[in-house]
Amino acid sequence: MKHYYKDIKQLFLLSFTTLIVLFLLLGKNAYAVNLSLSQAEDLALNQSPEVRSLHATTHELDESAIAAGQLSDPKLLLGTLNVPVNTFDFSQEPMTQILLGLQQSFPRGRSLHYQQLQKKDLSIAELNKQRVMQLQVLQGTRASWLNLSFWLQAKLIIKEQQGVFHHLLKVSESMLANNKAQQMDVIRAQLELTELDNRLLEINQQIETAQAQLARWIGPKYARWANTKQFPVWAPLPKKNELTAVIKQHPILKTDNAIIAAARANIKLAEQQYKPGFNVSAGYGIRQGRNIQDQKRPDFLTAQINMDLPVFTHNRQDRTFKASQAKLLATEENRASHYRLLREALGMQYAVWQQQQKSTELYRVKLIPEVKQYASATMTSYQNAQTDFPTLARAFVRELDTELAGLKAQFEQNKARINLMYLQGK
Prior knowledge:
By secondary structure, this protein is α+β, with helices and mostly antiparallel strands.
């Protein structure tokens, strides 16, 4: 009996474990085939080699900034002085000595401080470049996602229209059998279906291309799991004047600000070159032998300071200083140029977003319902022999083209929204 209960217990544990594993696998698969845009964005940022490269560069400059502010290592002096070459006896001459010493150099003025400051500013610039790259990765991921969503929705519209033309083909064949239509009506319906098949082939090619573009950001496996059946839903867009204020804090301009700060530190560094630098050394000379009074010769202590004399500054310090000033001017002009480009892009993308929003609403409220109503009325007229088949076919082709145009307007609106998010720094 005990063995029986033990077997039942083991069977229960095995069944329970199996259910847990199946639940996890099903849950994983359910998550996998419904990858959201936010999850794709996280994947793109984590997998981006460009972002990782800039992160490593930032770390390198952080470490270099600390190193740039340190004094150079002292130098050990070891040698001999005044050794007689006839005997090489260290006790023969009173001036012969073994020298041990240290030498330390001190740069001009506050050169170390400004070298360190310049490196720190460049590190901040790289950090902001990393943020710019992150925004570009997000922009590319969103654009690829949006493009894939557009073509998938276009495919659904084409397939729905294929069903409509299959129905039209049956209607025309039925009317032909009752001598209410002509053979050319059936041929025209078949021709329209063939045209739709061709358009579907083109759309399938576009879908594969869009999936490859999305895979560039998140990988082929995750690109297949993307849930792109509908366009993304974005947060409400701020007003244009608010966006104009926001772009002043864009990472591109922050990068320029850090580079300008580094250029100013470079000017300060150039100013330090007009000041003297120093080398300080101290040596201890060990002497051997004895003097005339038979006393041990005393050792010698030597200390000296070497100082740079910045006298001939015309072709070195002066030109270095002027070069640093020119570099500062160039960086300031770059910032002004970048701000103009950002402001121009904001104006253009905001205008596109506004117009496409109006166009999308016009298609949704008026154009698409009207063409559907017209196509339905044309179908009734055809069945009552009040119009011909070419008119009927044009009505449904127009319905298809209008639905695709409405979808295109939505696509362009969302595309402009993605570009505005980049300008927002989101």
